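User: hey, got a sec? need Amidase family protein folded
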Amino acid sequence: MVLTAVEIAAAVRAGDLDPVQVTKEALDRIAAADGVVGAFRRVRAEEALKEAAEVAARPDLASLPLAGVPVAVKDVTEIAGEYASHGSLAGPTSRAEADGVIATRLRAAGAVLVGLTRVPELCVWPMSDTPDGIARNPWDPTYASGGSSGGSAAAVAAGLVPLAHGSDGLGSIRLPAAMCGLVGLKPGADLLAEGGWFGMSVHGPMATTVADTAALLSVLAAKPSLASVPTPAPSRIAMSTTVPLLHTPVPRELVAAVAKAADLLTAAGHTTTSAAPRYPKTMVLGMTARWCAGPAVQAADFDFTRFQRRTRAHVRAGRLIQRAGLIRDRTRDRWVSRAEEFFAEHDVLMTPTLSHWPVRAGRWHERRWLTNVLPSTRLAGFTGQWNLAGYPAITVPVGRSAVSGLPTSVQLITKPGGESLLLGLAAQLESANPWPRTARK
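Assistant: Yep! Here you go:
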């Protein structure tokens, strides 16, 4: 079993573990398993070993929060000497001369960047396959690991690395985390927004434990206080298992996960009731418009003729939406007003994370746009509205399906600034109902 990030960092700080050896072991696991898992687009083996040696020689080693911890980085951020492909063969391949904000903060904390994880083209879809590989669910490789942070989720769930960076524009951290049995946190837009998808996309952590999630969040956000997971005061928790506006059926075991989590949180001293926000009908249009137009903006720097068929259709739709003026602030403002109304009466909303089971792993990038859209929207019924609102949300494992063996989970949402509350509640669920950390035997 792979040590947690917190355990690795503590041992490295104390001089009991060598960062180079820790990195070698991670690279060995990747070499042994990633041919099946497909988590990485690029493994930085030589570079990571060199960086690990540099960490070991740092004079501030004893104070580094992620000292010697191998971390996987989603293939969307700038790393010196690398290029971010965004899952595409159509984009520029000039290598970055300097680290971006995410890599800079990870390195400052003592992390070792072992590789760039697989994403779908322009991060549009909840399945992460590219012409050179398929990110598979380590619990059952016949299923997709999700997306767009699917490679990151697969890397952590397979025990290749203890931590991974992700980004979330419509559920892209929470969906793969749920599919792979991980903790995945989408911070509020005021904490780690990257500006993409008209303000819906944010960076965030993926891990096997709540403590590791908090540690990575604190580094990504440059807020050390977030690493301390509090014991939350008694909270008013609303729960809903109805897909907002669409009311599509949710599989029974995904609904049952919410009931189980509600019992655990009630036993911990919280109040649980059935309630949901008054979702405005325009919310779906607001999310969909940004989902299409966001990648269309990014596509300006790419060779359109080299895009996958589904991406060309998506970008064309996004450009039409932009020309029609359908990206409207008032759509978001109306939804935020309703969300504020709800959270004046409740501290937290709990839902299933997934509104359907994961799709089968495959070469989804070769299929038509509509063939990708239908299962994507069926999966993500509970997640995207919180990107539109800019509210923090976390997914927490609860159990496993008796039928498929795939993980089940719940999503917890709260108002801006409430990341520590979400981590505290997740820690209570973890303590009362420990989950298997990885799919590795």
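Quick note: Residues 236-281+326-432 form a domain with the Amidase signature (AS) enzymes fold (CATH 3.90.1300.10). Let me know if you need anything else on Amidase family protein.
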